[in-house]
């Protein structure tokens, strides 16, 4: 086929769509079902209605081929577990008795049965349920959901393409089931899994699927030769099937790297590749393998995970290059649109001009359709769209929001020395010891105390105008008083104000920083029925006025013990937002860091001697490919140091991290040069303390001795045992005693009891020194 006919055939498609509905109808129906207020049939009807309206929305926008099977009541990896019959033993009876109820039991657990573990879907903020596999796992095909959803779309007269998690990715995402050796590699089950996929593919073919998409995002990560070999075998075997639909193997979130030649040679009918900036290398790599002769190429040129408008001319030029590489080139978003909110036009509080810079799922559909049209019919067919796009891009590029000369000048003037404390740690430690006068094994918490119903009511009252700012301030102060007096009474050494004024650790700061936008309806799925509304980091960042000082100062006025100031670090501020794509992430992080640096300075000036800058996202934002790690860690650690290094030597800087294994970033943790770090450790029995010690980590650390993820109260003896384990790795002079994370999701009764036990444990172990 010539480039010209490849162009003429260009079609628009997407891989998946937001599931929740315009008003989060799905969340409401599922939670209603959990509470027994919505019947299973009513839930199914709501879900079917949402699928139908999504497909209609896609078709009305001009998307030629719609995805099916991407819908989920909870998570598409869990759906895949059901599809391949890998339901864990402990859930099997429940699933057999009631498929829907059993499905949610796997996702959320029950009183007696633990759920599947949940973890992040690659480097997004979506979480999936981890398949549990072992040498005894027997797979059986259950294509019912996929087939039913395909038939629904076909019945609407649409061209539909089922989307499945591919077999290699499914196995690479799995972990050994409980009781199975940790060395077990799920990928060894490939030969057992492939026949099940073959059966599902045959069922889909029989139900009318011309194409089926198999998603293999795991192949954009560093993969061993054995893993690449497994991918080769998988697609050789599936490709060799006779009774099958055409196969489209999709990858996204990064470049395919070594996996590209493997898939290019595979006997499948098409590849879907990411061609957005972070995966730009796919373009040259595709040329290097000689293109995909005889195959369909689906080009992900519209970023499926950010909320910015596409640069249509740039995408067209990429698409133009791609025409020479394949038999047929189609246009798509780079990944499922699951990761973006539904519709920017629902936003009422964003200035119309700025709103034109934003593209949520619905706007991305239009971009994809425009690009496919431009490709098929030539740019003259989209003259008006191109002109409007150029104008919007120009307005964004020249806006005062994205160009604050003062912020830019300040960021440009930052020197290496600005990101260094004035004295090395050992000297600072001496000064801090003299200044703070803390006992050995000092006790503290991570920052938040229980976010009570009353606090949420107070915030809602303030928003609704039922109370004024002064009334709100009264309620917050009352809460701070209670938190401070409890900590004094309990005997904690370094106190916190409890963060009662914060709705969320990122949103709270985003609302106060210039350059951030808030959305009203920008919900995206985090996991199950949990949706978050990430703030939009749209422009140059500055801090018009102090953000936390008055609360910390108030708390400090109530006590003689040191009160720790509490901030969210620059990396986490980026990680849990939609970040601007018009400059390197490191530049954006530096601007946030400078704003935080001013806050740190103001806290110190207000008499705060201990300041904690939380970076729970440092590990999770680590790029998917190890070649990208050094550059990321360089800007990330620099941004942290820039925000914290302006203080006096005797001011103690803390940081905090959780949710992760830290083994592979200990050097980065060291590079933060924080005086004290608190880390999640209770469930791994202080593993991180041993990792820090093995690295020779020279500063103070508080591996958590209280697992805050459940209401369970650890006994004083249990906390003491963990503390003694910590002491084996970290000497008493440098060991802190604290919980794993903040207490905002906990209730007061267990918080009280647990912290009393934690202080008792510290006293006991101090007595043994
Ligand atoms: N200071 C925050 C809190 O205690 C930290 C939260 C987090 O690490 N996720 O809530
Ligand atoms: Zn935490």
From TrEMBL:
Binds 2 Zn(2+) ions per subunit. Binds 1 zinc ion per subunit. Its cofactor is Zn(2+). It comes from the Bacteria. It is an enzyme of class 2 (transferase). Residues 441-763 form the Cobalamin-independent methionine synthase MetE C-terminal/archaeal domain. Pathway: Amino-acid biosynthesis; L-methionine biosynthesis via de novo pathway; L-methionine from L-homocysteine (MetE route): step 1/1. It catalyses: 5-methyltetrahydropteroyltri-L-glutamate + L-homocysteine = tetrahydropteroyltri-L-glutamate + L-methionine. InterPro entries: Cbl-indep_Met_Synth_N (IPR013215), Cobalamin-indep_Met_synthase (IPR006276), Met_Synth_C/arc (IPR002629), UROD/MetE-like_sf (IPR038071). L-methionine binds at residues 446-448, 499, 614. Zn(2+) 2 binds at residue 658. L-homocysteine binds at residues 446-448, 499, 614. The active site is at 709 (proton donor). Zn(2+) binds at residues 656, 658, 680, 741. Its EC number is 2.1.1.14. Catalyzes the transfer of a methyl group from 5-methyltetrahydrofolate to homocysteine resulting in methionine formation. NCBIfam families: met_syn_B12ind (TIGR01371), PRK05222.1 (NF003556). This is 5-methyltetrahydropteroyltriglutamate--homocysteine methyltransferase. The gene is metE.
